[in-house]
Specification:
Layout: E1 8-15, H1 19-31, E2 34-41, H2 44-51, E3 58-61, E4 64-65, E5 68-69, H3 70-80, E6 86-90, H4 95-104, E7 108-111, H5 118-147, H6 157-174, E8 177-185, H7 188-195, H8 197-213, E9 220-225, E10 228-236, H9 239-252, E11 257-259, E12 262-264, E13 268-275, H10 282-299, E14 303-305, H11 315-327, E15 333-342, E16 348-359, E17 363-365, H12 367-377, H13 380-400, E18 406-410, H14 413-416, H15 421-432, E19 439-444, H16 445-450, H17 452-465, E20 468-474, H18 481-486, E21 491-494, H19 496-499, H20 506-522, E22 525-528, H21 534-543, E23 547-548, H22 559-569
Parallel strand pairs: 1-2, 1-3, 3-6, 6-7, 13-14, 16-18, 18-19, 19-20, 20-21, 21-22, 22-23
Antiparallel strand pairs: 4-5, 8-10, 8-13, 9-10, 11-12, 15-16, 15-23, 16-17
Helix pairs in contact: 2-3, 7-8, 11-12, 13-15
Length: about 575
């Protein structure tokens, strides 16, 4: 008889010594709308063979047979690693044995004289099996997203650091060396800017495949983000081994990459750090490889091995940076806020967030001692993420208490040139529940001119999101006015070096006047920094300066003191 086309296919493995009982079971399933394709087995060996011959949907098993039992079938199914619904269909089964069977892994049991329970039990267990499988697939996907780069399918930063830490433990125990290489693709941003991100993604996929092809199986390559790759060489017998690998990596990039018929030449800079010579943990190795990589870029070399003599950080600063990694989690960092004053009204319209480190033994660490080294070693990224989150949280608190303020955060050149920055800031705003207009970004002239094209792209994207952008320390970076006109800046901040001396130095006053006139002509607000007395404030107001910051109004204050200051100085505050 030909089954109806809407019947549900079912591949059933029947563990049963009776052909008649098997046919009764199949007939009942067919009546319930299943197109049953079954195979009957009654011994351990036959089930073991058939179990792997195809994908089964469900197992029905008699409880006891002359040469086999449901318990043995359950054990075999579990050992095979397959998670299939297992329903016992038996002529007689005591309550104790039924409970034991369920504990052993059976999903249900049905008496042969009561087969009317077969269909609902089958439907339920098949549905539960689908749910379990969907959950497993979701967990696999989440696990892959957590530890692998979705573009190149290489391990991501989190997985790489875990693998490095494991390899380090083994290397230290066996008293041998390992090497960590950090590779950055030179001028990769130009590929994205000229040909598009789809083109750039295709190039990264090809680069990762070539690099992987020249490494040994035990070596690990990961995409750490953007155009940065990490390579772990877990077994280094001699320093010459590293030179061989570096040569192979360089040769792998010699031939142009063909993307949509276009040949693309690729060059890279590589930094190398060794364990145990340079560091004894994954983060430390990555940091020193990063220092070496930037040395390679600065000197125009293809690669550089970390050299403490060429590290711009003193051992004390390196130790401090190691502690900085944990300072956020330990609650040692704090933001101080300095108000930005409208010179016409004398009232605050915003505040600049300035990070401070309350070290448990060194006291208050000056920002220059940890911010500049953090910029050079990659620690600036997690530091910036913390500052953004904390500043937004505090600003939202001000606004909920009736203070219509925005908060400004300083970004380094390295942060500015991170292509993921706009998305990361957008995510910070979403998590904080704030609108883009409450956030201001301050970038120094010197940071902008390091890579003007990349800076313009990032700042344009931030401006499109509605985030305000200020040029900080204006007048000290030697940037051209032509380029400044292209930037989507809403503010220019006159560097305090000009403001501090303008009452006594005619040249400083002239520079301040020029900057204020420039801002007026470009439709950009001007902020004067470093105002320390009433005379300077009045002079700048007379020149047409819009906003001001300085100790005359307030020093940078910790959150609690700043909130109190706001209560006394905001519009509507009683005098």
């Amino acid at each position: 008889m030909q089954n109806a086309p809407n019947m549900i296919p079912l591949h059933a493995l029947v563990v049963e010594d009776s052909e008649d009982d098997t046919l009764l079971l199949v007939r009942e399933l067919t009546r319930g709308g299943y197109d049953v394709n079954y195979h009957r087995v009654d011994t351990y060996d036959t089930m073991s063979t058939v179990l792997t011959q195809r994908a089964w949907d469900i197992v029905f098993a008699d409880f006891t047979m002359p040469h086999f039992s449901a318990f043995e079938a359950l054990k075999l199914l579990r050992e095979s690693g397959q998670d299939l619904p297992f329903i016992i269909v038996s002529g007689t089964i005591g309550e104790d044995r039924a409970v034991a069977a369920m504990k052993a892994g059976a999903h249900d049991y049905i008496l042969k004289q009561n087969l009317k329970r077969l269909l609902p039990a089958t439907e339920r267990e098949l549905r539960e099996a689908r749910i379990r499988e969907e959950r497993r697939q979701a967990e696999k996907k989440i696990l892959r997203l957590a530890f692998f780069d979705s573009l190149t399918q290489l391990p991501n930063r989190a997985q790489f650091l875990e693998q490095v830490q494991q390899a380090l433990a083994a290397a230290l125990e066996e008293r041998r060396q390992l090497a960590l290489l950090l590779m950055d693709i030179d001028q990769f941003r130009e590929v994205n800017d000229t040909l598009g991100h789809t083109f750039g993604d295709a190039l990264l996929v090809q680069i990762s495949a070539r690099l992987r092809s020249v490494l040994f199986e035990a070596d690990v390559i990961a995409r750490l983000g953007g155009d940065e790759f990490g390579i772990l060489l877990p077994r280094i017998r001699a320093p010459e081994d590293i030179q061989v690998v570096l040569q192979k990596l360089a040769e792998a990039l010699v031939a142009p990459f063909m993307i949509e018929g276009l040949p693309i030449a690729v060059e890279a800079s590589i930094g190398v750090a060794l364990a145990p010579q340079h560091a004894l943990d994954a983060d430390g190795l990555l940091q020193r490889a990063d220092v070496a990589m930037y040395l390679a870029k600065q000197t125009g070399s293809v690669h550089a091995i970390y050299d403490p003599e060429q590290d711009p950080h003193s051992p004390q600063r390196l130790a401090l940076l190691g502690e900085l990694r944990h300072a956020i989690d330990r609650g040692e960092l704090i933001l101080h806020y300095q108000p930005k004053i409208d010179l016409r009204t004398g009232k605050p319209i915003g505040a600049e967030a300035l990070v401070r480190w309350r070290h448990p033994t060194r006291g208050l660490v000056p920002p220059l001692e940890f911010i500049t080294p953090a910029e050079r070693t990659g620690l600036i990224k997690p530091l910036t993420q913390w500052v953004l989150a904390e500043a937004l949280r505090e600003c939202i608190s001000w606004r909920r208490n009736g203070h219509a303020m925005h908060v400004a955060v300083n970004l380094s050149a390295r942060s500015l040139h991170d292509p993921q920055l706009p998305e990361q800031i957008g995510e910070q705003l979403r998590q904080a529940g704030g609108e883009a207009c409450i956030l201001g970004i301050e970038i120094t002239e010197s940071a902008i001119i390091v890579d003007p094209a990349r800076a313009l792209d990032t700042l344009t994207r931030l401006n499109t999101m509605g985030i305000m952008f200020s040029i900080d320390d204006f007048g000290t970076g030697y940037s051209s006015l032509g380029f400044i006109r292209k930037l989507p800046a809403r503010e220019i901040k006159i560097d305090k070096s000009f403001v501090l001396g303008m009452l006594d130095n005619r040249e400083d006053e002239v520079i301040a006047r020029i900057v204020i006139d420039l801002g007026r002509n470009l439709g950009i607000k001007v902020v004067a920094e470093g105002i320390e007395n009433s005379a300077a404030a009045k002079n700048l107001e007379a020149l047409g300066c819009d906003y001001a910051q300085g100790y005359f109004f307030s020093r940078p204050l910790p959150p609690e003191e700043f909130r109190a200051w706001l209560g006394n100085n905001s519009p509507g505050a009683r005098k």
